[in-house]
Amino acid sequence: MALVLEHLAATGRRRPCFVGAHGSASAAAERRAAYAAGAGALDAAAPERTALGDFSVGWGRAAVDALWEARPDAVVCANDLIAIGVLQRLQELGADVPGEVAVTGFDDIPMAGLTAPGITTVRQPVAELAAEATRLLAHRLGADGAGPQRALRLAPDLVVRGSSAAPHVRA
Where are the domains of the chain? Predict the structure, then answer.
């Protein structure tokens, strides 16, 4: 989420909102908390501009209606399905993406690159995550399950696409 917020700040965005999912599952909770922790640097009110539903296209579409009155200049989505729904609804409303509002997602599913404009998203190193999980499981099984538990985080990449270009400057 820090990668997304830094990118949005670099493109001049100052009024982001977050569209995520309810619940305490790690993806929902961690992405929501990371947004809240970093968005205040762009705008003190940003952490309050949050809408929570589920990880779906339908929720992304509905969330726009809930948040649009606040006139965000960026919508940070907790996954790419939400971002696709947000993008669809913004286009129906006649919003200029990315000129008026940027849209970002998370996960880099194949559809994120097929939308118009393509969605800027965070790509997780899935192959590396799988390899590390296998290695850790094999190590733990070799220790008869008595080995210490370890948490491991691998660095994601920001995939910048057309949905988050710098806003238009009006003369």
Answer: 2-124+157-164
